[in-house]
Amino acid sequence: MSDATPPPDPEAPQASGESQPGGSPSDTPENPGAPQAPAPAVPGPVPPPPAPTTPAPGAVPPGGGAYSAAPAPDAAPAPGAGPPGFDTYRPEAPGAFGRPASPGPVQRSLAPLLTSPGLTSLGITIAVVIGAAFISAVLLILAIQGVVPSRDLQVSFSLLPVLMGASLGGRLSMSVSAGLGGANVSVSMPALGTLLAAGAGVYLVATRRAGLDGSGAPLGGLCARAAVEAAATALAACVLTATSSFTSVDGGEIGDVRSSAPLTLIVVALVVFVALVAARGGETLALMMPAGLRQVLSELAALTTVAGLVMGGLVVPGTVIGALSNGDGPLILALPVYLPNLALYTLSLGCLGGLTVTGASSSGSLADAGIQSLLRNVEPVYAWDVLGGVSVLLFLALLVVVLAAAARVGVRRVRLVRPDLTRTWALGAAVLVVGVVVLNLLLPLRLSGGLLGQPVSGAAGATWSAGLTLGIVGMIVSVLAEYVPAWLYTSATGLLTLCAGRSAVSAWLAGSSGQRANRPPGPAPSTAAGAVPPPPSAPSAVSAATGAFPVVGSAPAPSAPSAVSAATGAFPAVGSAPAPSTAAGAVPPPPAPMSPKTRRRLRTGVGVLSLVLVLVVAAVVAVHVLNSRRSPDKEVATYLNLLADGHAQAANEMVDPGVSNDKRLLLTDEALGAATSRITSIRVKDADVDGDHASVDATFSLDGQKFDYTFSLTKGDSEYGLLDNWEIDDSPASPVTLTSTSFDSLIVGGQEVPLEREGGSSSSSASAPATYKTVQYAYFGVYDIAGGSSRSTYLTPDTTSLEIKPSGSTSTAKTMPSASGETVEVGGTPTQALKDLVLSSVKSRAKACVTVPTNMDPVCPSATQSSHLASLEVTTDATSVTMESGTRFTSDVISITTTPDPPKGGGSAPKPNRTQFRFSGEVTWTDGQEEPTVTVKRTEPAG
Q1: Which pairs count as long-range contacts for 505-509, CB under 8 Å and 24+ apart, including other chains?
Q2: What's the N-to-C CA distance of the chain in angstroms?
Q3: Pairing of strands 913-926, 355-361
Q4: For residues 681 and 708, is the Cβ–Cβ distance under 8 A?
Q5: What's the pLDDT score for residue 67?
Q6: Pairing of the two strands 823-825 and 734-740
Q7: For 806-819, b where at least 16 C-beta lie within 10 A, e where not — what string?
């Protein structure tokens, strides 16, 4: 044992200087009879014990000797000091042997999670994720409801939990039970907008509550707590969303829609874990990374920020304008859910990548059901195919992305005296890898499952070359990053600040950009305990110009340049030797600014170039707007609207029917305008363009029936070399053949249509009927038919309506036979005027039969055909006639009484004879005569 007195224990009672409960310090077992100190006159609180002091090295305690070293509080226990699991013995309490060992970092990090602040943070995290999914689902439902209206809005909102799960997990599974074998299909596409919103919300919550919920911990414990919170959040989201389903029954078909529980669980857990770790331990994790990896991630983040802002700013107005112009305005509501998806696809198109659709099926039976065409491979389409002339705007936006990203990336690198291309490959490689993974593995819309009992699969997304072209653009950005910051600093400092940020530019100028990425992780090593650092060596001389000491160990300054550049104000390099490297820790001078004259010239050139670009963009936009109104579908829509409004002549000018003028009597505004029914409810689908040819499907209603019609178009010569000129190949005007044996002319749609006689004499009768015929063309519609002016007094047509409908079309209702390309026969129905005319002729003939000498006519009854009759009298005249098709007639019963001459030799007078009969005959129509000829042909018995 040493005789040195140990230092006072901070937890032991003080030897002197303060009162102890029950007595003074002198009143101890060692000194029981010591006199007590007087009590203080004024009561007051007991002063705290003095802080323990550590003796200075070499100090001598009172009474001589030396202090012994006190054991460290957390020092390992000495052998025999206590049982395993306990620290070094300390007399903390009477009879205490020791205390339990401290818990590990994982236990210490999880303990605050069960406190009220920790559970509050967890609840807010779950609410953020569920809220993002809820808002996304509501937007999707409103968008679907606006485009495809449902009869019951509540039915649509019953999809809410299913769409919430789909927006988080990115997959929907649909099954339909039907008589043909049903279908079971899964559709997957990540809703990046929802996931980014949920991740950003969790990140903000974790950052704001870091000082309240005790989430600060070493990286291992921090990750353990983040994993527990992510698992709890994912489980809650899965229970609330992915376990629900939507079932609908339509006739004999039963449909079921649900989201994927496993994907929802995995995706939500991953997003929440990454957001929590980044918010609570991002700085620590960054310091643990290799310097090169940190630098690449910093540059990749800078490039992603610029590309996201520019492409997002291009996608939002483009989508809004496109949706409104196509009448699909409600689809705008779904834009926040899939905005990152659209921005990435737009970026891939701007990088000369393509979009494609691939499909596969193992059975040909789907072709019989008309489904195989949905699964065919589609040739890749590129920006100019999708956007046409507007693709110029996309390429200009990509140019802005490249230049702005080059500035933003460049200021995050160490500023050197000259560009170093050896540090450019890393960013290009990173963009290539990320592009392939995101565009080709994560982003595509995928379909898999079975249809009609046969397996099918398909995908729609970017081509595999899109990732390669994106990597090339990333490499271009990385190379330009070595030049653009310095150039912008000398010519347009404000633009550099706008692109890269003020703080980043300041760090770049100060030489501190990139230093953090190149600094080894961990704090700088401290000097040894008690060691005194050596003083810096004295400089050999002090600068007379600045008063600064030169850097120790640095290379001598280069010789002064011989001349200063008048253009830039920069000193030229001395000789042909390379510029000397700066000393360790020295910052190269900032780029010399341009001279005012050069700056003015540059600004003038940039202004002129910008004006030219603005004019070019305005011209391109104007041409695109004009061409959008001259597209194949717009051409068809314009044409059908002309027919719907009754403008037949304007329609003839757009599409020449290609028939002679004598067959265009119904292709006039008067005829089409007089139609009792024209096409309505026109809906034109997007054109299917194949080079200079296109086909457009249109739907319209006619007389309450729905029809489909396909137009074929050919691209003609462009007007002024810029404006598209699509021409409809064939006119929908349909031929119709009108025939009649009663009329030589008809009035169709208010237009007199003459019919030409086919053979025979110039007269027409029942025994020698004449046939009149003509071929005319007419547009879709329903037209009234009336008799021609020459015979309209005595005949009316038995067919009063002419319907011109698309031939071979499928109607939603049962339709009458179409007259297109067929023959319509129009018969005549006698009017009362014709019947009165025939009856008058019959009565005249009956009177003639009782008058000598016409009683001898062969048409008269045989009883009147005698010269030995004392009297002839019509006792009952005809009162009506019966006519067939306006050319044959038969009278009702006629009675004639005849009395023979008395006998010459005397005797009784003969009795009168009563004869009943009917007259029948024909009505003959002669061309050029308005009045017909009625001829009684014979006498028929009245029986």
Answers
A1: 505/411, 507/411, 508/410, 508/411, 508/412, 508/415, 509/415, 509/590
A2: 164
A3: unpaired
A4: no
A5: 43
A6: parallel
A7: beebebeeebeebb
- The DSSP string of 223-265 is HHHHHHHHHHHHHHHIIIIIT-EEEEEETTEEEEEEE-HHHHH
pTM above 0.85, yes or no: no
Whether residue 459 contacts residue 358, with contact meaning beta carbons closer than 8 Å, is answered with: yes
CA gap 410, 500 in Å, rounded: 9
Alpha-carbon dihedral sign for residues 330, 334, 340, 341: negative
What's the pLDDT at 577? 38
Q: What residue ranges of the chain have pLDDT lower than 70?
A: 1-103, 148-157, 176-182, 248-255, 359-378, 451-453, 515-586, 759-769, 807-821, 928, 943
- Please tell me the predicted confidence (pLDDT) of residue 766: 52
| Cα four-point dihedral sign 462, 466, 468, 471 | negative
In 3D space, the residue among 673, 635, 850, 646 whose CA is nearest the CA of residue 749 turns out to be 673
State the DSSP H helix or E strand holding residue 926, giving kind and residue range, or none if neither: strand 913-926
**Which backbone phi and psi does 299 adopt, to 5 degrees?**
-70, -40
Six token digits for residue 785: 């038919």
Q: Enter the tokens of residue 606.
A: 């940039």
Return the percent helix, strand and coil in the chain, to nearest 5: 40, 20, 40
d(CA 852, CA 435): 116
Query: Using CA atoms, how far apart are residues 364 and 451, in angstroms rounded to an integer?
Result: 12
Longest dimension (CA), the chain: 206
C-alpha to C-alpha distance for 454 and 365, rounded to whole angstroms = 8
The answer to whether 365 and 454 have CB atoms below 8 angstroms apart is yes
Neighbours of 381 (CB within 10 A): 14
d(CA 849, CA 859): 8
Nearest-angstrom CA–CA distance, 491 and 592: 10
